Amino acid sequence: MNLSVLLSVYNKENPNYLVKSLDSIFSQTQSPVEVILVKDGPLNNELDGIIDLYVSQYPNLKVFPLVTNQGLGKALNEGLKHCSYDIVARMDTDDIAKPDRFEKQLAIFEKYSDIDVVGAWIDEFEDDISEVKSVRKLPELPDDIRQFAKRRNPINHPVVMFRKSAVLAAGGYQHFPLFEDYYLWIRMLMNGAKFYNIQESLLYFRFSPEMFKRRGGWKYMINELHFLQIMRQMHFISFSQFMQNLFVRFSIRLIPNSLRAIIYTKLIR
């Protein structure tokens, strides 16, 4: 089964992290036919140098530059246009895929022809992959995933693999700061797409205390309120589910960052 891998990189990303991410892609037990890398605006010399080096070593790495920084959603949509195959694996340029990630996800698509999205668990680490801080676990089966999506994001975006046709049928990625992927999953679920999560970690996800800071405060709350309103308008959640989400989520956004970190790494996971 032919596979495209889709990445987006922008100027502020760490060059060393990019190297580790690309190495993990090109050392898979089942190699992708092509790797599509979108440059989301001009990059610095170090990032450009690394990309040029990998292009010279791997002819299946195809680079598509954007003139200006467009944001993740628009960059991924641009990259999707250049994906030659229907099965597309997402990667972030600071994460590390486990060696058999693609092999195990492709096996699900081969076994279940009606599945459109295949996710997995992820190991969250801060400095070294030998020191995993938490595991982000998600439900396995389509019905359970749909119910879970009413409360929380049902797919770990950095490790997702999906059918390009199903993503485009739901309108593709759309600009929605902080919620581009979650918004896509909701629209796909409403469009009849079926989801599956492999019940093991297939990727090392890099996180830091800064991540928990970004998930707090009034700006995040306003974006989240807008997203919950959209879910309600789409009739994906009821009014009571809207109010419950509002209470739980806003409580987490307003507490100190140290407590929010404990909730994310110890309780929610």
TrEMBL record:
Residue span(s) of domain Glycosyltransferase 2-like: 4-141
Pfam assignment, any one: Glycos_transf_2
Provenance organism: Bacteroides stercoris
Upper lineage: Bacteria, Pseudomonadati, Bacteroidota, Bacteroidia, Bacteroidales
Protein name: UDP-Gal:alpha-D-GlcNAc-diphosphoundecaprenol beta-1,3-galactosyltransferase
Entry keywords, A to Z: Glycosyltransferase, Transferase
CDD domains, per database record: GT2_AmsE_like
InterPro entries given in the database record: Glyco_trans_2-like, Glycosyltransf_2, Nucleotide-diphossugar_trans
Family: Belongs to the glycosyltransferase 2 family.
Matches recorded under PANTHER family: GLYCOSYLTRANSFERASE (PTHR43685), GLYCOSYLTRANSFERASE EPSE-RELATED (PTHR43685:SF5)
Gene Ontology molecular function: glycosyltransferase activity
